[in-house]
Amino acid sequence: MKRRNFLAAAATLGAAAWLPAAACPMISPPKYKMGLQLFTIRDDMAKDAIGTLREVKAMGYEDFEVYGFDEVKGEFYGYPAAEFSTVLEDLNLTVSSGHFGFSDYLDKSSDELARFVDQCIEGARALNMNYITWPWMAPEQRTLATYQRLPDLLNTIGEQITAAGLGFAYHNHGFEFEDHDGTTGYDLIVNGTDPTLVKLQIDMYWVMHAGTTTPKELVAAHPGRYVMWHIKDMHPVSRDYTELGNGTIDYTTILPDPTEAGLEFYYLEQGGNYTYNPMRSVADSAEFFKRYVQRYL
């Protein structure tokens, strides 16, 4: 719902419940660090990664999910992985997950894939990540044939990453929920993978956008497996991304129980459609999230 409707509806829950956390000393501190998927501010990170990280830290973000790892050079945002780790340490920031380009290796040899996974592991270890995440498939890859063979591939990757002491997760979009002869790609992926090797990163925007299920229903079907969440809002007209509180997703009602889900990390994200600019968007989303949503985590 839009911000003004959200706030009006919130009044029915009791005024005290909606006071800022600072005004409610009985509310315990948040259990999880406020996270941000850095793809949201990709242009700013490309121009000045260190300055951008300082700015978003001042907004309250403490933990990040990275993207765009250069496996050939071993770099994040133009910095060698070890050097970027030092940047994070100096700023007292953490990276708990990374989106890596696995879909480019869907049709490559097992040796090429294994080598790429080793490179991802090396980069993830340098940043002390907890998870390596499969984030995407190109449009031409979204076929029933791909979904049928993907579980074995994900299990293989998960086994290699788990053996290295890290976690592996699959991130959904909306296309996995499309029907394929009475089943969906998501059902094939989730039911065909080993829960000990392949965890799930739920993108709640895309679940709500697809409209075939809900985050609570998914968690109820696979408790303990949704270790990471993506939280973003949906524009009421275009259904594109928008700032938290500016769209139609009411997170006070759709959020699953974090314990039941197995939640370890969450990230706010907005992939585009910024009202003003990316940095203003992450600031506005952070303000709204801290004021109205963070208490549920």
TrEMBL record:
Residues 53-256 form the Xylose isomerase-like TIM barrel domain. The keyword Signal applies. Keywords: Isomerase, Signal. GO terms for molecular function: isomerase activity. Residues 1-23 form the signal peptide. The keyword Transport does not apply. This is Sugar phosphate isomerase/epimerase. It comes from Neolewinella aquimaris.
